[in-house]
Amino acid sequence: MAKLLALTALGLALAFFGERFIAFRQRMNIPHLVHPVEPPSCHIIPGLENGSEDIDILPSGLAFLSTGLNYPGMPSSVPDKPGEIFLMDLNEKEPKAWALPIRNGFDVQSFNPHGISTFIDKDKAVYLYVVNHPQMKSTVEIFRFEGDSLFHLKTITHELLSSVNDIVVLGPEQFYATNDHYFTNHFLAQLELFLDLQWTNVIYYSPGEVKEVANGLSFANGITISPDRKYVYVAAVTSHSIHVMKRHDNWNLTPEKVLHLGTLVDNLSVDPATGDVWAGCHPHGMKLLMYDPADPPGSEVLRIQNILSQKPTVTMVYANNGSVLQGSTVAAVYNQKVLVGTLFHRTLYCDL
Asked: Does the residue 232 lie in any domain?
């Protein structure tokens, strides 16, 4: 009887893990063929060979880029080099990127920037909020942009900001942030991903209140807000979807709809002129987890028009099998041009 029970338990365990493995392959988009799509004119931005995981563009056309992310389990082109924030002026005919000095005693050697978001106050001062992972922890760093430098003002930590991926600023020291894992231990985080526990969430932070405002997401990632600030959009990577949530006066979020896109959605941005949502996407997640330069991960960029309607229009604006651009994470638009960033590879600039 004991042997029968042991065999039964083993059989159930194998069946469970077999089902989880098949589901995991589906979540990683295996197989997913990339059909090339390219706008009329694209070129690589020199000096940004270490990735630009997130991009935020000011109304003036100045673009901040988060570069050099070292993320557990993902490839990195320069794992031993600290990250940097680069700046581009997209009003220039041929924009160039340059690294911004960071002042006020900030520990640049442990800088590991992830998601970013800008904020302009009533006095027109510009602030940059940066998700940082020093020693693989999660903090939110606040900088003031002045002249040609970033001045560090404050580091925010909180027990609910445990595995922060991205951020959208709402006001002074006020933001929504996504946690992309429930566990902070690397092994448990990988197990969480394999089992698809859907325990990731969105946190609202302010000096007077910190709370969970959304949960049950599959690898919550990019987050942004509609131009009228009534809706929040959250990317769920492994469910290949964008969650549309309604924002309430108490900053709570309620689900409105889920848009399934058939690709692993990373960071999101919104065109302030049209309200269109732009997404940097990964057509093949396993190629990111098991990087092979001979068979690199591809890139996809989606444009979603009328996302609040019953039938949004989804357009593949850019797609490449990795021969030009690997591991696209973000697409941000300005003046009929799109800037496409990656996890660890190049940065692309295209006319639309």
From this structure: yes
Is the residue at 94 inside a domain? yes
The pTM for the full model equals 0.94
Question: Is 114 an annotated catalytic residue?
Answer: yes
CATH of the domain at 146: 2.120.10.30
Q: Biggest alpha carbon distance in the chain?
A: 78
**Residue 112 falls within a domain, yes or no?**
yes
User: Residues 32, 35, 43, 114: which is the catalytic one?
Assistant: 114
| 320 annotated ligand-binding residue | no
Report the domain count for the chain. 1
295 is in an annotated binding site: no
Q: Is 91 annotated as a binding residue?
A: no
Q: State the DSSP string of 287-341.
A: HHHT--TTS---EEEEEEESTTSSS-EEEEEEEE-SSS--SEEEEEEETTEEEEE
31-67: pLDDT as tens digits: 788 999 999 899 999 999 889 999 999 999 999 999 9
Annotation-wise, does 53 bind a ligand? yes
Domain, as residue range, for 79: 32-351
Sequence-distant (6+) residues with CB within 8 A of 273 are: none
Taking only the tens place, the pLDDT of each residue in 281-335 is: 999 988 988 899 899 999 999 999 999 999 999 999 999 999 999 999 999 999 9
H or E stretch covering 331: strand 328-334
Structural domain contains residue 4: no
Residue 267 marked ligand-binding: yes
Measured at the CA of 201, the angle between CA 189 and CA 78, to 5 degrees, comes to: 50
What is the C-alpha to C-alpha distance for residues 291 and 42, in angstroms, rounded to an integer?
A: 25
